[in-house]
Amino acid sequence: MAAAILLAKAGLQVTVVERRLQVGGRTSTLEQDGFKFDTGPTFFLYPRVLREIFSAAGRSLDQEIPMLRLDPQYRLVFGSGGELLATPDRQRMTAAIAAISPEDAKRFHLFYRDNREKLTRFTPVLESSFENWRDLARWEMLKMMPLLRPWRSLDSDLQRYFSDERIRLGFSFQSKYLGMSPFRCPSLFSILSFLEYEHGVFHPVGGCGAVTRGLARVATEMGVEILLDEPVEEILFEGRRAVGVRTARRRLASSAIVINADFARAMQRMVPNHLRRRWSNEKIESKKFSCSTFMMYLGIEGAYPELSHHTIYLAEDYRRNLDDIENAHLLSADPSFYVQNACVSDPSMAPRGMSTLYVLAPVTHEHPNVDWKKEQPRFRELMLRQLEKIGITGVEKRIRMERVMTPNGWNKEFELHMGATFSMSHNLRQMLHRRPHNRFEDLEGVYLVGGGTHPGSGLPVIFESARITSRLLLEDLRIEPQWEATLPLAAESLYEPVS
Q1: ∠ CA 192-197-201 to the nearest 5 degrees?
Q2: Could you give the CA distance from residue 48 to residue 27 in angstroms, rounded to a whole number?
Q3: How far apart are CA 160 and CA 270, in angstroms?
Q4: Do β-strands 354-363 and 292-301 pair in parallel, antiparallel, or remain unpaired?
Q5: pLDDT, tens digit, for every residue of 393-410?
């Protein structure tokens, strides 16, 4: 949707072909019996990128998609003991850290200072395309190596600031946004937690699905045609050049194609294997894919007003929980999990007198070790018991609507390869020029956006992929982008925190 807006702004005729009944994919809204849930992402971070895209189209993000800035941002509950109420107020956050580890509180300002510099210096990299190793060898990249420390994991890098593992987990659990363990995730991604404190954690009114609906509304008003409930069955080629797509209803000719579908699934379903040299089926299967998630969408009678908008429980043996997910491919006895209690901030998400609970547990992607037809009922019961660890009691008797999603469901309903909700993992072998390129290297006239390409997973960088890809596409068509902002950019401080 973001790419459609930018390309339409440049004067192209754009058609979006969507396989589902609504736009947004995982960033959409599940509605049932008056209850509304974010299907996938619930944290909206770093609105600057999307604000600039809207501004380039002559629109205001703040007017099109109202958002609430949360304070506290979330509550962390440690299975090994203790809690941390994360707040963007640095003085209060320092005190919260001190209540767990006084020595670590003294170094919080160093974490803040160093990661502000890291983000500032690395932002141009995230906004650039990476098409070969020469892009990695640019002087701008090489001089950042001492700052980025790619030889360190996220957890080992955080040890420079925080000695208490609970505090380190509080600043590294965000690696799960990438589907990775903080003990394996590259140290670069300490900027994820910094983003939350520096730029805020937001709740779009109506949920994150309101963002994609807003994008679709603006795109349509700009002349973009959106075809719903129309899966693409194949990409049409003349030689190695894509010339259109075929659906069950029609053929659509095109001069360029932008793919936002799950990369692995799209290649295997829509492109003959012999046309792909670097990304053959065999090569795709050799890659490391992210974890998946077990989801419970619960519409409940009444509310839990004392429960934060976002709550994260980190298992007592967090390392073992991650090993179960990434290596052993087993279901943990004490799984970490996350709960969104959206109605505490946004009552529009449920009927009057009701509320919603969105429960997510990271689990292995599809693997022979886990038969979800057998495990789903047992794991559901386990998760209901786990909720008691963050103070949610008696929930089962209050459930009025329920839906469960397993890795099998992500595979079948959302066409995610292996049910991996964060696409390919973001290890050093699968980042930058080693990810599928935005200007897709195996085919002519094919471009990629989304979590499967550069810069990677997470809504802010996914929206950035739209800008990178759109620039490359227009460059190939020899068209000037014409994305000059036509409205002043609103300062993020205009969003008043909601507690």
Answers
A1: 80
A2: 18
A3: 47
A4: antiparallel
A5: 999 999 999 999 999 999
